[in-house]
Amino acid sequence: MRPQRTLTARGGLMMFFGLVALVCGFAIGQREIVGAGLLLLLVPAIAALTILGAADRVSHSRDLRPQRIPAGTDTQVLIRITNTSPTWPVGWIRLEDTLPVRLGHEPRYTMGYLGPGSAHDIVYLVRPAVRGRYPVGPLRVSVLDSLGCVRVTRTLGTPTPLLVTPRLVPLPELGRADGSQGEDAPRRSVTGTGESDPIPRAYRHGDDLRRVHWRSTAKHGELMVRRDEQYRREYGSLLLDTRVGAHSGEGPHSSLETAVSVAASVALHLLEHGHELRFHTERGRLANDTPSGVLDGLAVMEPSEAPGLMAGINGLEGAHGTSSDLVVAVLGALTPQDAAALARVGGSVPRVAVLCSHAAWPDAQASHRVGDLLSANGWRVLPVTDPTELPALWHRALTPAGDHATSAGIRAPWESPR
Is the pTM of this model over 0.85? Predict the structure, then answer.
């Protein structure tokens, strides 16, 4: 961008008083006043000549460390300002970095003198409270003459993207029906599609010679065969309600941000524990091959204008039909029709419904009615206002002890003790 030259307040006052003195001097015939007026008029012009080309000699580089952060954490913005001229200094420099409103106030710095070939580093912190992709920059550089009469402003570079992923909460490890957890849980063999154990074993009488692993045989000096035990994969199905009409509030405490944070925490928990994830919204199935892919997709996900949740519920039903081991629905305000359809997604596997209590429910009892309906159909209902409430509720709902409790797994706050 071409530099823009403007008069400062000081330069403008000099021009004004110079013009006044010049007119008054001619009017009353005083040469001294005319000379003073001419001097005041010439000072800004001479000052502009002293900074001719100064803005073009200023260059910069920018780095974000890191460029991808969870919401509510800090990233460093590092800016290096360099005078590219080996002979000419740059007098007085002011900097202003461009930031979106959600990242806070735009930082401003006054550097002063920058010698020939020298550089100056500036570091400041940014803490985004809401997920998204934010442009950081460009940088606006203003160069002033030594008297502060003329300002030359130039915009440098292009914005650097900052990706802010949803806030995560750690969840306790999933319990199993046999009471085992984690690495102590037995691997369940099944027939059908699976993964071959890559470690060969010694040949046994009756083994098919087509299974001989010749490389291991040469290494060990005896016949070795591949193991073909098949192990069952575990599948998790997740539904996230992102309808704009189902959520309320703005900023980090809105029900949509709560739902996205909860869904991201559940998705990463399942992926990190070896589940194959089927992730659905009312717009269809999402790509979720890796934890980073899930987070990046949720970081830029916008609310939809869909009136109902049936497309996502149909996706859950299809996922359940292919042997899901866990079904989780993270929900905003549901209509009676959507709640009834979700309640019919049945089966013997654990089903968890996370209800955002501060979503756009039509009245105070609407979320209670939906929770009662889902509980009566075997869902474990977790009412959540803030993502930090999820770990304790998740533990109570999915531990083996919860399997022998009520059909809802836990008691919702509106239910009375039995």
Answer: no
User: Which pLDDT belongs to residue 309?
Assistant: 93
Q: Which residues contact 318 (CB under 8 A, 6 or more apart)?
A: none
**SS3 state at 295:** helix
Task: State the pLDDT at residue 316.
Answer: 80
pLDDT of residue 154: 93
- The domains spanning 55-165 and 235-403 adopt the same CATH topology: no
132 vs 164: CA distance, rounded Å:
5
Hey, where are the domains in the chain? 4-50, 55-165, 196-230, 235-403
111 within 8 A of 120, measured Cβ to Cβ: yes
Task: Give how far Cα 56 sits from Cα of 52, 117, 145, 149, Å.
Answer: 9, 13, 15, 19
Within 10 angstroms of residue 367's Cβ, the number of other Cβ atoms is 24
CATH architecture designation of domain 235-403: 3-Layer(aba) Sandwich (3.40)
Q: How far apart are CA 246 and CA 192, in angstroms?
A: 41
pLDDT reported for residue 193? 37
Q: Which residues of the chain have pLDDT under 70?
A: 1, 174-199, 206, 227-233, 318-323, 346, 400-418
The number of CA neighbours under 13 Å toward the Cβ of 91 is: 19
pLDDT in the model for residue 174:
61
Backbone angles phi, psi at 197, to 5 degrees: -70, 125
* Amino acid found at 68: R
Architecture of domain 55-165: Sandwich (2.60)
